Amino acid sequence: MTDDLTNIPYETLISETQLQARIKELGQQISADYAGQDLLLLCILKGGVLFLTDLMRQLSIPHEIDFLAVSSYGKEVRESTGVVRILKDLDKPIKGRSVLIIEDIVDTGHTLTYITNILNARQPASLKLCALLDKIERRRVNIPVDYIGFTIPDKFVFGYGLDLDEKLRNLPFIAVATG
Ligand code: IMP
Ligand code: MG
Taking the model in full, what pTM does it have? Predict the structure, then answer.
């Protein structure tokens, strides 16, 4: 398959049907686990956006959303350094709230380690992680991921929120480049 707009050849790694079925399961699990709590879904921009909007439609419990935008240095050498700059901070304090981070993918784990350190200092009641994709083979730092959509091999993926040079976030499935 070749993308009509960008001419990039790719194949589907995780289909739209597979994504939506798994997100429904995650929504049911999170709804049960957080029943009665003051749940805040904290989406990491930009990659987590499609996952957030589908996941929240599968939640049966009240919740709020907020967004954090970060840029990580060092990605040009295909590995984040863990030095993260906050581009857009949260709108509201998280002290005493049950915070669930919604992230597109955990790779080395550096970015999330840095983010969780910053957020834990703000004293939430709890801070857990939900990642759609986990590239477990690439992990450099041990960071517990509480909810994982899919474990994937060490390949660069895009679509469904994840970008290829800022494009193709709109694909409704997870793609992997071919050729
Ligand atoms: P980490 O600090 O190495 O865990 O990097 C995590 C971040 O790198 C994710 O939030 C993504 O923005 C980006 N990333 C890692 N792997 C991929 C990929 O295969 N496709 C698109 N972005 C990726
Ligand atoms: Mg990301």
Answer: 0.93
